[in-house]
Amino acid sequence: MARAVWGGALTFGLVSLPVQLFTATDNHAIHFHQLERGTSDRVRNQRVNERTGQEVPLDAIVKGYDVGDEYVLVEPGELEDIAPGRSKVLEVVGFVALDDVEPIFFDKTYYLGPKGKDYAKTYGLLAQAMERQEKVAIATFVMRNREYLVAVKAEAGMLTLHTLHWADEIRDPATIDTLPGQVEVAEREVRMAEQLIEALSMEWKPEEFHDTYQEEVAKLVEAKRTGKTAVKAEPPAESTNVVDLMDALRASLDRARERESHEGKQKTGDPGGAPRDIKEGANKRGSRKGSKAKRQASHSSSKSSVLESLTKAELYQRAAEEDVPGRSSMSRDELVKSLSGERHRRKSSA
């Protein structure tokens, strides 16, 4: 059962709603222990007095603020004393349109729930009213000795809380020298880039995305555990030269269109691309052998186009599924050729 990370009261106007805060996300990263090289000895972090070298217990540690020639010491309890009420109150300052809050301000997301069934009606009333008005509540509260600016959003009868960065925490882009600002580009390049964006447009389906890096880490661990060789990733793509920009855009657009065409053909159930009734008619007219050859050539071309768009790791996975011999020592191009059948055809013709 999920545990609340904070409990208090959400206040708006004269209404006070007891609520609990729950983390909305999980970290699925693979974690490693630190070991001393050549041994299985764990390496642990310790709180050590830098003058004596002795470990210091947690209850003997106080906070100190450096003012130059000395430290101002602050006890943990003193931080609670300066805001005893605010650490238990989520105070709504006002309501704004969600689109008015720029994405750069958002930090972390929590679920906000009522503290018991007795408060479900008040909770539901606030959620429905906010959802109808299409507004988010801007509020502040204190958690773990830190004050947060937050946006409370209603959706499907539920409230979510999003911590926000303070305005003075957002860096001014003008302080970053490498950000170019406005750059003059040719209109034909813009049009080509717009076509590429249109060709790569898709529906947002977050469930279709997964952490491929963590999957590769897991494969590396398993390969080392079983004494196998892990597949190395492809090097990063080379930077596009300004002179080659149009060629790169045009090639990218062609590849995007080929992939879109191939995916459309797969939906029809025909990797060759032609409607089944047309092919059946052609076969009936006595050109079965020629049609079969054309279908094979078309299928091979489409397959090669799709394979070219895959990473080396994805190609290796396909090679493993098809049990391609010698795949572990192949380069990316060799994997493409093996999977598309080019190497097999050359051997047959020889």
Number of domains: 3
* Range of helix content: 25-40%
Report the mean per-residue pLDDT as an integer.
80
Write the element-wise H/E pattern from the N-terminal end onward.
EEEEHEEHEEEHHHHHHHH
Low-confidence stretches: 272-299, 342-350
Radius of gyration: 30 Å
> How would you sum up the global shape?
extended
Query: What is the percentage of strand-forming residues?
Result: 15-25%
- The total count of helices amounts to 10
Largest sheet: 7 strands, mixed, barrel
Distance between the termini: 66 Å
Structural class call reads alpha+beta
**Strand order within the widest beta sheet:** 1-2-6-9-8-7-5
Number of strands: 9
Question: How would you summarize the topology of this molecule?
Answer:
Elements: E1 6-12, E2 15-23, E3 63-66, E4 71-74, H1 76-81, E5 89-97, E6 106-114, H2 120-133, E7 135-143, E8 146-155, E9 158-164, H3 187-199, H4 212-226, H5 245-267, H6 276-284, H7 288-308, H8 312-321, H9 332-340, H10 342-349
Parallel strand pairs: 1-5
Antiparallel strand pairs: 1-2, 2-6, 3-4, 5-7, 6-9, 7-8, 8-9
Helix pairs in contact: 3-5, 5-7, 7-9, 8-9
